[in-house]
Specification:
By secondary structure, the chain is of the alpha/beta class. It has helices at residues 2-15, 21-30, 41-53, 74-81, 99-108, 123-131, 133-142, 146-153, 163-171, 177-188, 196-204, and strands at 34-38, 63-67, 89-95, 116-119.
Length: 205
C-alpha cells in the first residue's frame, strides 16, 4: 500500500508539471494495470472503504485510486495514465454536471468511457440518499458532531431546505469532514444499500 501511495504521489506531481520518470518506474515495478480517476479525496475514502469491506486489496490487484483535485483535471490525468501515457486501463466516478469534462478528456486521450459511472449530484448525495437522512443523522450523532449539526440547522440559509440538501451542505462546511464521512457513510451502508455508481465501479475493477 505504501508503494502504491508513492505511485499516486508521483502521478500527482507529474500532473502538476513534474517529471514522469519515477511514476513510470513505479508503475512497472508495482504492476499497476488500472487507474481509478476520482474528483477528490472524499471519493477516494469511499471507494477504498467499500473495497476493504468487500475484502479486496486494490493495491495488490494493481489498481491505483487517484484523486485528481477536480473534474477539470481529467484530460490531463487521462493523457498521462491512459493510452498516450502509461497505457493503463482507466475507470472512475464523475458527477452528472461534470460529465462533459470527462467525455472530452477521455476522448482526447483515446480512452474508453465504459468503466466510468455517473453520480446524480455527487457521491455524498448518493450516499445520503441510500442511507436516508435519519441514518445519516445517527452517524453524525455517533461521531460526536451533533452539536455542530444542530448549530448548522439554525442558520437562516438552511430554513426550509430539504433534509438531504442540508446534510450534503453540512458535510462540506469544515475542512476534512467530507473525507471523514466518505468513510463513515460507506461503513454504515447495508450491502444492498450501496449506490449503483459506487457498486458498479468496484464490480468493474
Amino acid at each position: 500500500m505504501a508503494d502504491m501511495r508513492a505511485f499516486r504521489d508521483e502521478v500527482t506531481d507529474w500532473a502538476a508539471g513534474g517529471p514522469g520518470e519515477a511514476a513510470r518506474e513505479l508503475a512497472a515495478r508495482l504492476g499497476v494495470r488500472t487507474a481509478v480517476l476520482l474528483e477528490g479525496p472524499s471519493d477516494l475514502a469511499a471507494v477504498e472503504t467499500l473495497a476493504a469491506r468487500r475484502g479486496r486489496d486494490l493495491a495488490a490487484e494493481g489498481v491505483c485510486v487517484v484523486p485528481m483535485g477536480g473534474a477539470m483535471s481529467v484530460g490531463r490525468y487521462a493523457g498521462l495514465l491512459g493510452p498516450p501515457g502509461l497505457a493503463l486501463r482507466l475507470a472512475g466516478l464523475c458527477d452528472e454536471r461534470e460529465q462533459p469534462f470527462y467525455d472530452r478528456g477521455l476522448e482526447r486521450a483515446g480512452a474508453s468511457r465504459r468503466d466510468f459511472f455517473v453520480c446524480v449530484s455527487d457521491l455524498e448525495e448518493e450516499l445520503i440518499r441510500a442511507l436516508g437522512p435519519a441514518k445519516v443523522e445517527e452517524v453524525i450523532r455517533d461521531e460526536g458532531d451533533i452539536r455542530a449539526w444542530q448549530t448548522f440547522l439554525h442558520q437562516p440559509a438552511q430554513h426550509g431546505r430539504p433534509r438531504q440538501q442540508q446534510l450534503r451542505r453540512f458535510l462540506g462546511t469544515k475542512k476534512g469532514r467530507k473525507i471523514r464521512y466518505g468513510h463513515l457513510l460507506v461503513e454504515a451502508l447495508a450491502p444492498e444499500q450501496v449506490p449503483a455508481p459506487l457498486d458498479d465501479l468496484l464490480t468493474s475493477l
